[in-house]
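can u do me a favor
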């Protein structure tokens, strides 16, 4: 990889207000902590358009703030099937439904990988989804924070030193 080229990563969920902004914030935090900010371009989006322009769900903002991660400047946008697969090296859906939608919209399979496939503590493919916390209780957001942290650590470990 040339030293001046950034690795670009797009986290994708349904609404872009709960899971993918949290993944975006956590991954950005890890990259900053490791002084790798200059190496990555990080973004998130949703396959749906309901919340375009909105900040993340207050419950995601709170779950992140408990760990000193600020999501308040993020704004939801919809996946762009024409541009995003060209702009991003990695497109990372939160669940199998998002994965199907990305493939249905023509995203090259080689760029798409489920978020939880990067979690080194998952030994089977029984739980490949980051569950949608939107209609659940507040504790769902702390659970997905932990899930996303493990997957983000695995993702960064896998891609920061390409073979
Ligand atoms: P997300 O959660 O995909 O993690 O952002 C959702 C947020 C909103 C809706 C669905 C899921 N919604 O139907 O409005």
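np, heres the sequence
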């Amino acid at each position: 990889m040339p030293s001046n080229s950034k690795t670009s990563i797009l986290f994708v969920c349904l609404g872009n207000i709960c899971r993918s902004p949290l993944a975006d914030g956590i991954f950005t935090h890890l990259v900053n902590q490791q002084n790798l900010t200059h190496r990555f371009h990080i973004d998130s989006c949703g396959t749906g358009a309901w919340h375009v322009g909105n900040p993340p769900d207050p419950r995601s903002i709170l779950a992140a703030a408990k760990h000193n991660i600020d999501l308040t400047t993020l704004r939801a946008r919809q996946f762009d099937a024409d541009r995003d697969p060209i702009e991003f090296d990695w497109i990372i859906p939160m669940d199998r439904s998002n994965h199907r939608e990305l493939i249905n919209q023509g995203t090259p399979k080689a760029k798409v990988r489920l978020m939880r496939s990067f979690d080194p503590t998952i030994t089977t493919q029984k739980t490949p989804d980051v569950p949608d916390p939107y209609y659940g209780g507040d504790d769902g957001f702390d659970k997905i924070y932990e899930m996303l942290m493990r997957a983000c650590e695995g993702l960064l470990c896998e891609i920061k030193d390409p073979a």
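The chain has one domain: 7-160. hope that helps!!
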